[in-house]
Amino acid sequence: MRGSEPRFRPAWSPTPERSPTPDRSPAPAWCPGTRPCCRTPVGSSGSLRELRTLLTRLADDSTVRVIVFSSADPEFFPAHVDMRIGENMDVLQELAASAPADVNVFQAVGELIRHQPQVTIVKLAGKARGGGAEFVAAADMAFAATETAGIGQIEALMGIVPGGGGTQYLRNRVGRNRALEVVLTADLFDAGTAASYGWINRALPADELDAYVDRVARNIAALPDGVIEAAKRSLPADDFQEGLLRENDAWASQFDVPAAQKLISRGLRNGAQTPAGERDLEGLMRGVARRLPDVHPHTEAPGPVARRASGRSGAALGRRCGTPFRRRARVPRVPTG
């Protein structure tokens, strides 16, 4: 668009009355997450479907040049994948059937974000863990509030590893040594540290975050025709196909191990996925592990599920609820407490 300032248009909301306006001028699109911390845009099976639908629709909308993702909850961005997501197997099976053959349903979302034709920006004011952190790393840019934002891969404290692209996106952004630090410590990193590692673009004072992201989005959206496309063509998203396959195999091999089931189930009983529990989820899960000494490998003999998993190929692990998913498009069985 030339000669006038592009306007912001809300691109998506869970409520149908908040739909795009008739104005078709090139603009940024704001995509606020309006669900509570435990039902975030990447957290539940329904939200996964909504997000994939949104990204697919926006990819074909030439009037949207920039997509800004933020959260209506100041404490939490996507907190992490819903720990009870396995209760909605019908939706997960539907998503798996439509996912590309070599990614699982969670990786499919990250790959959609990474290959979106628009510029994708995350505005992070609160905490982003697990799948939420993977979402942040998949975006083209991320800016966070110094005083309030935090980001981390919590999965190790649940007995698993990141399975939605996090290992590959992290290594690409921060290097292997720091990626291992993030994954294996499972700590929540402050915005300043995340910026110094290269995990996010920049940490800003909380009272400057909105204005800064607003300015960046507007300036990019106002660029001459073709500039964004040319820039993204000359700086393409890296190909992580083989790495995503390795990640998925590692993730799937851990999910059925009894230790992971115990940790997730007991974490839910102790307050995970409640606002109070999510404020220090790392502390909560470490406390759960201390009270479950049998989750450690040297004290636990593999259960029947673990033995069965260890003797199967990655493709065989893709069968759930009697339905063979596409190769590597897998959904784990998640304990419900």
From TrEMBL:
Regions of compositional bias (Low complexity) in chain numbering: 306-322
Coiled coil: none
Protein species of origin: Streptomyces cellulosae
Protein name: Enoyl-CoA hydratase/isomerase family protein
Pfam families membership: ECH_1
Disordered: annotated segments: 1-29, 293-337
Cross-referenced PANTHER family: ENOYL-COA HYDRATASE, MITOCHONDRIAL, ENOYL-COA HYDRATASE-RELATED
CDD domains the UniProt entry points to: crotonase-like
